[in-house]
Please model this.
Amino acid sequence: MENLLVIDGYNCMKRTRAFEKELDASLERARRAFLEMVKKFSRKNHTYGAIMVVFDGKGDIDSHPDRDGSASVIFSTRGESADEVIRRLLEKYAVGRRISVVSDDNYVTNHARAYGADVIACSDFLRLIQRGVRTPEAIDEKGLDAGEAAAITEALRKVWTDN
Model:
């Protein structure tokens, strides 16, 4: 089963101060900087078989895969929002794939949960990228590996349940 990451592009891009300077210059410049960041994440991260970044469009820009194949960029058509495009992607890919959606938009996150997708807050996703962490599961502030964490969890379970 291929993992799919769907990113609410403008929603996340505007949720961080990292793109303020680019946004002051132009939306296009900020979008290019955001996509470059996503491409770097994609090259280092092998958790997701496909990454789709969805932006609101005016119907004059077609969807296209990035040149290096690291992500697909999708622009909504005239009269529809990126949120609706994301909802349609969830509907289309919900069966047979594990989907993670990056957004802080309630409409998007509620639909993502309804389709069984994992929801990642924009701030968490941006922190992952800035830290260079490979997967959300790899975040561990104490520096424990999975085996150590499992052993601690088991020991605490025994203490708490008196077994």
User: Anything to note?
Assistant: The chain has a mean pLDDT of 81.
